[in-house]
Design goal:
- This protein is of the alpha+beta class.
- The protein folds into two domains: 260 residues, Double-stranded beta-helix; 55 residues, no CATH class.
- 20% of the residues lie in helices and 26% in strands.
- It contains seven helices and 17 strands.
- It has an eight-stranded mixed sheet with strand order 1-2-3-15-7-17-5-4. A four-stranded antiparallel sheet has the order 6-16-8-14. A three-stranded antiparallel sheet has the order 9-11-10.
- α1 links the parallel β2 and β3.
- The protein is globular.
- The structure holds fe (ii) ion.
- Fe (ii) ion (FE2) binds next to loops.
């Protein structure tokens, strides 16, 4: 059978003035006709860390197409699990079998860069399907992590551990505490390198938890077949510098929309209540390049959740509708 699709090759945009620039060579574009697309090409691209942008996907086919790709890379179970998990937690609404709504936001709010989840859940694949985007912004921004950078040790991840005064947990207790507090193991005690931020209550007698800022650890990417540092939600959301760096990046690419009576940046920040410290690590020290994607109806983006942090630019309210759904595996 002959594929009735074709592939567009990108062109490179060099980094400007030492700041983070776009590298369109990291983008692999494919046009889909009906249900037909070059699966092997997509799998190869995921393996080499490229971002795949599929054009012409019919909304009713997005789930099937996603399932086909997840199965080909051995992540079908994880795709189903994540869809069920998000619906259970109630912070997202299902849109089809695997896709779900993206987090809601207020006027002028943007979503800063992050990889979905944390090293404990270790999600492998991120995908975004665009039903429509008729706003004057709302670009999808992807940032490629610099695996070799020494600056990862200057970041901190928000982690829950057992306080030193706590007794260890039984496996049954651990399953419960893991689900609620994301504890990583039954005897994951506070480490000497941790900065304890606050104590957390536990409803188990003799069990005390601590919220700490911990040194990031590499996580294993099944797509890339190696351990890499990842800009998890739990790293980006707690860092004030992540907010100022993202606003600067949006400004550099002329994407930042400001309210007429300029409020401060925190009013545009969907994570303002979570930020508790400043790393002072510039994005050019932990990311290699950016991709700015103005998605239109029928576009589907798929990438490694480890290699690429995703974000969304803001837009001027009332300029249109932005309807994008996400799937993770
Ligand atoms: Fe996300």
């Amino acid at each position: 059978m002959e594929w009735t699709c074709w592939t567009l090759r990108g062109s490179e945009v060099e980094r400007v003035g030492g700041r983070l620039g776009e590298n369109r060579l990291r983008l692999h574009e494919v046009v889909v006709h009906g249900r037909k697309f070059p699966l092997n090409e997509v799998v190869d691209c995921l393996g080499n860390g490229s971002v795949i942008l599929m054009h012409g996907v019919i909304a009713e086919h997005a789930d099937t197409l996603m399932e086909e790709i997840a199965t080909a890379v051995g992540l079908q179970e994880e795709l189903e699990l994540q869809a069920g998990f998000a619906a259970f937690l109630g912070h997202r609404t299902s849109v089809g079998r695997f896709f779900m709504t993206v987090n809601s936001r207020s006027d002028f709010q943007f979503i800063g860069p992050h990889s979905e989840g944390d090293g404990n859940i270790n999600m492998q694949l991120a995908a975004f399907f665009c039903f429509e985007n008729t706003t004057d912004g709302g670009e999808t921004v992807l940032l490629e992590v610099d695996e070799e950078s020494a600056s990862w040790c200057s970041l901190r991840e928000s982690v829950t551990r057992l306080a030193g005064s706590s007794r260890p947990l039984t496996l049954r207790e651990f399953a419960r505490v893991r689900a609620v507090h994301r504890l990583r193991s039954p005897a994951d005690y506070v480490k000497a390198s941790d900065r304890v931020f606050s104590e957390k209550r536990s409803d188990l007698p003799g069990v005390q938890l601590a919220h700490v800022l911990a040194e990031p650890e590499k996580a294993f990417s099944r797509l890339l077949d190696r351990k890499i540092f990842t800009y998890w939600d739990t790293i980006s959301a707690v860092d004030h510098t992540s907010l100022t760096e993202f606003a600067r990046l949006l400004d550099d690419f002329r994407l930042l929309k400001r309210p007429q009576h300029a409020a401060d940046l925190s009013s545009m920040d969907s994570m303002k209540n979570d930020r508790i410290w400043s790393s002072n690590v510039g994005f050019e020290r932990i990311f290699k390049s950016a991709l700015i994607l103005r998605l239109t109806s029928g576009d589907l983006v798929i990438c490694s959740n480890h290699k690429w942090a995703h974000a969304a630019a803001n837009w001027t309210p009332s300029t249109g509708v932005r309807r994008i759904a996400a799937a993770f595996a």
